[in-house]
Amino acid sequence: VDAVMLAKAQAKLDKKTKPLGSLGRLEEFARRFVAITGDLQPDTAKKIVFTFAGDHGVVEEGVSAFPKEVTPQMVFNFLRGGAGVNVLARHTGAEVRVVDVGVDFDFEPTPGLIIDKVAKGTRNFAKGPAMSREEAIAAIEVGIGLANRAKAEGVAMLGTGEMGIGNTTPSSAIIAAISGKTVKEVTHRGTGINDAALSHKIRVIEQGLAVNKPDPRDPLDVLAKVGGLEIAAIAGLVLGAAANRQPVVIDGFISTAGALIASELNPHVKEYIFAAHESVEIGHRFMLDRIGAEPILDLKLRLGEGTGAALAMGLIEAGVKILKEMATFEEAGVAEGEY
Amino acid sequence: VDAVMLAKAQAKLDKKTKPLGSLGRLEEFARRFVAITGDLQPDTAKKIVFTFAGDHGVVEEGVSAFPKEVTPQMVFNFLRGGAGVNVLARHTGAEVRVVDVGVDFDFEPTPGLIIDKVAKGTRNFAKGPAMSREEAIAAIEVGIGLANRAKAEGVAMLGTGEMGIGNTTPSSAIIAAISGKTVKEVTHRGTGINDAALSHKIRVIEQGLAVNKPDPRDPLDVLAKVGGLEIAAIAGLVLGAAANRQPVVIDGFISTAGALIASELNPHVKEYIFAAHESVEIGHRFMLDRIGAEPILDLKLRLGEGTGAALAMGLIEAGVKILKEMATFEEAGVAEGEY
Q1: What is the pLDDT of residues B182-191, one digit of tens each?
Q2: Which member of B74, B84, B338 has the closest CB to residue A326?
Q3: What is the CATH number of domain B3-42+323-332?
Q4: In sequence order, what E strands does chain A have?
Q5: Which CATH number fits domain B47-315: 3.50.50.60, 3.40.50.10210, 3.40.50.2300, 3.30.499.10?
Q6: Residues of A marked as catalytic
Q7: Does ipTM exceed 0.90?
C-alpha cells in the first residue's frame, strides 16, 4: 500500500480534537483504509460479507459433531435471513451474499444465492487428494470473480465467511502442512466435539498428511490436497480484493486458512487484510502472525459464517468516520495540548 | 440480577442455529441484558451516552498537557457534534447528552446541554479536599436524577463518558486510596505527558493523599477528598441505572473510577455494569477486577468522552439481536449436532 497516503491520513487524524494517537486502533483502521483505497475521504457505506459454502469428503471419517446435511440446511437459513451472520450483518449494515462453491446438494436458482459450484464437495483427504489442482484453481477463481464484481459495483469493503460441516479439519491440515507444526498443536474442537472425537480428528488429519504429502513451498498443492472449496474461494476473494485495492475483512479460523493460502501465494495481499477476531481454535494465532494481522475483536466467537467479519466491519467503519467526521482543533476553536 | 432469567435467556440461545455457546461473549451480553431488565425480548433501540464535564483545581499543579480552558471548549465541540464521542455515538445509534456538573465556565442555556452545576470545578486536592462531602453527594445525585429521567423516557441502555482536563489525576488518586497500591503503580500519562511530567503528577497525587488522608472504607470520603464532580456524577448514574434495572456501559479509566466508587458504596451495582474497553492507563485493570467486569473491546483507546462506551453499546446490542432475531433449529429445519 501507499506509504504517502498512510502519512497523509495520520496527519489528518493528528489535527482532530483529541490527544495525539488517543483513538488507538480506530486511527490504524482509518489510516490503513486510506492507504489501501488511495482515498483520503473513503466511502464505507457498501459492505458485503461473502459466505462461501462447501462440503467435505473427510466428514465420512466422523470428524464433526454435525451431519453433512447441515451445510445445505444452513444455506437455506442464510437465504431466509435467520442465521447469525444475517443478524450481525443487518446490525452493521452489511449485505450477505451466499455462494455455493461446493455443496453436495443441487440448489434451485434462488434470489440471494450465487451458484458457482466447482464440485459437489471435496473428496475424503484421509484417502487421497481433496481436490485436483484444477479444481482448487477454479474455486480460487470463483472468489476472484466475486471480488471483481464487487469492485465494479462500488463496494467499499469485503468480508469473508464460510459454511461447511467439517471445515475446521482441512483448516488445521493446511496450518500443519504450512507451519510444520504437529497436527495436535493446531487442531481443536471445531463446533464442539469431545476429547475422544478430538483425538480421532487429529489422527484423521495425520493420516491425510501422510497419504497426500502436501508440499509446504507450494500453497496450491497444500490447498488442493488437504483444503476445501470454500477455503479456496476465500483465498481467491482475498487475492481479488488486494488486486483491486479493496480492504478485506477475514472472519475466524477457516477464513484465516483461506487468507493464509492467499498470502503464501502472494505476500503483498497481507497489507489489504483486516483480521476480524481472535478465534477460540488453536492454530489461529500462528496464521495471524504469519499474515501479520492483529485481530480486532476478542469475543470468544467460534461460529464462522462471517459473523466476526460483520461485527469488525462496523468497527473499521467507525475508524474511517473518525477521520471523515471529527472536527479539527482549528474548526472547533479548541486549544492544542503541549506534549 | 435474576438467575432464573439468566437461565431462560441461555436456554433460548441454545435453540438457535449454531453450536452451543459458539457466539461467546455475544451470548453473555444477551443473557446479562435479559437478567438485568427482566425482559426476554429486551428493546435496545434507545441508547444514551452521558458525557459529564467538570474541572479540576489540581490542574494548577501542572498535571495535564492541556490547559483547563479546553474543558468548556470541548463542551462546545460536543454540542456541535464534532467530537469523537459524537461521531461514534452517531455510528452506533446512540444519543449524546452533555452534562455540566462542574465546569469552571458559565454556559448559556443551549439545546443538548444539561446544566446541573454543583460547583465551578473542584478545589486543588494537593492542598486540601477537592470537594465537601455535600458537594460530592450533590454531584452523585445529578447522575441518579439523569438515570431516573432516562428510565422514564424508556431508554434501553445508558453509557458513561466524561470531559475534564486533568481528570486522570483524581482517578489515579481514587484507585491508590481504595487499593492501597502505590501512586506510581496506578498513575500513567493521561492525554500524553512526558516522563518528567509523569513523575511530577505522581508527586502531586502522593501529596494530595498525604494532605487529605482519605478513608478507604468510606468511598464518599475518598470521592470528596481526591475525586471530581464528573466522577461523582458517573458514580450516581451507575447507582441510578442499577436501581432502575438498566444496563450501564462504562467507558474507560475515569468512568471506571466513578463506577468503582458506586460499587464500593453498593456492591450490587456490579451486576448492571458492562465495561466498554481495556484502557491504556495502568490502574484500570485493578478497578475492573474489583468491579468484576471483563472489558468488551481492546482498541488501545485513551480519549474518554464516552467513545469506548458508544462502540461497546453497538456490540451489546448485537448480542441482544442474536437472542431476538436468530432462527431456531426447529424454525430453520436444521439438524442439531451431537455433543
Answers
A1: 999 999 987 7
A2: B84
A3: 1.10.1610.10
A4: 47-54, 94-102, 113-115, 157-163, 248-250, 273-275
A5: 3.40.50.10210
A6: 305
A7: yes
